[in-house]
Amino acid sequence: MNWPEIPKFNFSFSRADTAEKLLISISARQVSAAHWRFGRFDRCDIFTYSDDGLVAFKSYLAGVGRKLPVHMLVDAVEEDYRLESLPHSVGSDRTDMVDRKLKQHYRNTPYISAQLRGRDTGKRRDDRYLFCALTNPELIAGWVQAVTEHELPIAGIYLLPTVSQGLVERLQLAQTNLLLVSSNSSGLRLTFLREQTLRISRLARIDATTPQAVKSYAEEISNTRLYLHGLRVMTLDEQLSVLIVDSDDTLAELADTLARDNPNIECHRLGRAEIIARLGIPAPALDSSADALYLHLLGSHAPDSNLAPAEVTFGYRMLGVRRGVYALAAATALAIAAWSAFTWYQVVDTEVNIKSDIENAAAQLAQLQAQYLETARQFPVTPTSAENLQRAVEVAQKIGAATRSPETMMAIVGQALDQNPDIRLRRFGWKYGRADGGQQDPRKSAITKSNPGPAGGARQQSGVVAGEVRPFSGDYRAANESISRFAAALSEQPEVAEVKVIKAPLNVSPSLTLSGTTVDSSTRVGAAEFELLLVFKPTT
Q1: CA 333, CA 327: separation in Å to the nearest integer?
Q2: In terms of Cα–Cα distance, which of 197, 261, 204 is closest to 227?
């Protein structure tokens, strides 16, 4: 299988993680620290893995000043990787099952993680997990404590092989069996990936300064191939692809040795120039530490295999909460400022519009006043003043409001006639005013005598209705009942105060004396005449 051309990546600020942070690599021999900002770092500061180195490291942290997030990388022999399948589950069931499996495998360390790596192709479709652990937590305990003492939030702790897996993803390598080989500060690191998934990683502590170093490296690669066969991860018949990551160009002889002694191994070397050109790491930074390449990969993108427990990353989570609160406060302040500006603009615009409307109204008023004066000059001379004319109009309005017409009385009598079809109207008299005794008309006198008027001299309406009952066959009792019904219909109206019968066809009063003859014309059959007095309720 031929190696594909490794694509060139341009790690600009839009593609790399540009957030400012502190990167720290810990191995059994040295500790490297780099200040990441603007998507890169310029150099690494080196500290020996000793008490003196820890003191110098604390002084370095004190000079950082700001509370930068810390990402830590660990390259140690004391590590473990397991790829296992678990029944497919989701939610809290998955979390509980994974936690039980982690506690079952790793009881003596808090630095553990589990990453879902897809699902099996069998019928059960189980979930495949990669379990990772740093089995010796004492290796980093002092350095982690130094970071927390300086109140720097720890964002994550990662094993070097999980970070180096990101190199394969960035270079888009698709070999089925791929072995990454690199010489780091802690020794020779060999990381095996099958189908781009981390399976095994070994750290061989070989002194790179000895003349036999290259031969020892080649033997470790061969031993790793046998080790993979023994674990049944791959067979000897399968082809193994080896990528030698040579950041300081000291492993060129190793690539030649492997190609000469192992014809069934496909080998490719990624030299210093290619690393700088392809991955965008500055040359001074790459030369400053043997672990600089992996710190650069960690700064560009942190893997999902974070070993740090919750109590270690508590400060970082609180930092995220504070940043979220600050961002929310800034967004709220920006929204308030925008709303205030918009409201101020509306107020100013409204004031301008109101001022313009006032000016227009004043101009129109001046124009109307000029037109009025011009028109008033053409009016004829009035015989009196405007005030006298106004008083005359007011008096006329009061007179008009005080006048009444017999229309209401006519309507009431008409309704009563509709209800009593045997009543025929002969005469109708109406009066509106104060009652007095000086009336010459006998009917008006009857009105005055029967209704002397309301107290206080208020005006009221009154009238006399004269009619007859038809047909009339001489039954005076029936005629009187018809007249009574007619009078009752009139008195039911709310405007009527009183209805009196002032003349009936037959007067049955016991005070009257009986006189006349049996042939008197007033008692002829066919007419039963009567007169009613209607008094209306007084009006103010």
Answers
A1: 10
A2: 204
Among candidates 67, 62, 127, 63, which has minimal Cα distance to 91? 127
The alpha carbon of 321 is separated from its chain's Cα centroid by a whole number of angstroms, namely 20
Residue 414 to residue 428: CA distance in whole angstroms? 11
CB 459 within 8 A of CB 446: no
Tokens encoding 524: 């002829």
The percent of residues above 90 in pLDDT, for the chain, comes to 37
Confidence of residue 395 (pLDDT cuts 50, 70, 90): confident
Global model pTM greater than 0.90? no
- Burial (CB < 10 A; 0-12, 13-18, 19+), residue 259, is middle
43/31 Cα distance (integer angstroms) = 13
CA 73 to CA 185: how far, in whole Å? 12
Token pair belonging to 530: 């009567």
User: Which two tokens mark 404?
Assistant: 């009444």
Write the DSSP symbol of residue 457: G
Q: Look at residue 456 in the predicted model and tell me its pLDDT.
A: 52
Q: How far out from the chain centre does Cα 455 lie? A: 75
Contacts of 539 (CB under 8 A, 6+ apart): 404, 458, 459, 460, 461
Question: In 3D, which of 376, 74, 387 has the Cα closest to residue 201?
Answer: 74
Beta bridge partners of 528: 469
pLDDT digits (tens, 9 = 90+) for 415-435: 989 999 999 999 988 888 775
H/E stretch holding 435:
none
In three-state secondary structure terms, 6 is: coil
Count the residues in the chain: 540
Distance spanning both ends of the chain, measured CA to CA: 120
Cβ neighbourhood burial of 485 (10 Å; 0-12, 13-18, 19+): middle
CA distance 76 to 89: 33
How far is Cα 291 from Cα 271, in angstroms, rounded to an integer?
15
Average pLDDT score, the chain: 84
Query: Residue 292 is encoded by which pair of tokens?
Result: 């600089």
pLDDT tens for 253-278 read 888 888 787 777 888 999 999 999 99
Q: What is the DSSP string of 163-202?
A: HHHHHHHHHT---SEEEEEEEETTEEEEEEEETTEEEEEE
pLDDT digits (tens, 9 = 90+) for 137-181: 999 999 999 999 999 999 999 999 999 988 888 888 888 899 999
